[in-house]
Amino acid sequence: MTHNDALAVTLNPSDPVEAIVRAAESALNVRRRYQFFVWTQSYLGRLIPHQLAVCGSYDRASRELLFDVFNSFGLEPVLMDALGDARSLLMRHLQGCWLEARCRPTIVATAELSFASLGTVRDALLAAQFEKILVHGMSRPQRPQEIESFFAFAAQDGAALAAHAARLELLLPHVHGAWQRVQAVERDVGTGGAAVPPSIKVGGVTQREREILTWLREGKSNQQIAEQLGISALTVKNHVQKILRKLGAANRAQAVAQAMSLQLLESMPGAQAAARRRDVPLT
């Protein structure tokens, strides 16, 4: 058991002060993208329950925020595109709401996204049962318009998200620090965050493995996945082991994070969708 696992076991979820301390301590160990994903799903998720986290960091080369999306279940492509694009009307609107709130944690009601051009994105958010979005960020001192990092969280339980919004004020330095560290480390190791490590061959991941990865993202056990797919739990276990080898992952969480980076969990268009259950490599 690792140090982080031990902390998770001893964490008392009924004590928010202790939970905040543990989240801050564990954030110091976050250096890779998959570690950030695991941290948001565990320590941060206990304090700010969410199924969607959008994380942006200012990139000095492109002179704009670059966003990464972490979601625990599948979302419509139109929504994923909007969330990952700093220039999309949705992300610009969320930043505007935050600036209007004087850079404090802000809840944005999805139903109030009334712009005509946001209709499709708003509908996709509502279809995912994301009725509220919690946003917060960090700007340069005395220059609120110069945003260094920006985060958006959404949960199917919008009331719980809103109730815990104030916690983001305390946690923001740790979220910001961990995400900035991830960006720096990923650049240093040459993966560039969402870029594909040269050792991973996307074409080696089969349609069946991609489908299993989608269930893994939702936290399903081997037995639960087997029941969904009509195969044995042992077959699922064998598929998971192959997935870990192909993606160079040490565990399921790392495999899911890597698959998200490779966009293996996106909806399959056209002929690929028709071959959804065929165990053939992606091309």
UniProtKB/TrEMBL annotation:
InterPro entries: Sig_transdc_resp-reg_C-effctor, Tscrpt_reg_LuxR_C, WH-like_DNA-bd_sf. Keywords: DNA-binding, Transcription, Transcription regulation. One of its GO terms (molecular function) is DNA binding. GO terms for biological process: regulation of DNA-templated transcription. It holds the Pfam family GerE. Residues 198-263 form the HTH luxR-type domain. The keyword Transcription applies. The keyword Transcription regulation applies. This is LuxR family transcriptional regulator.
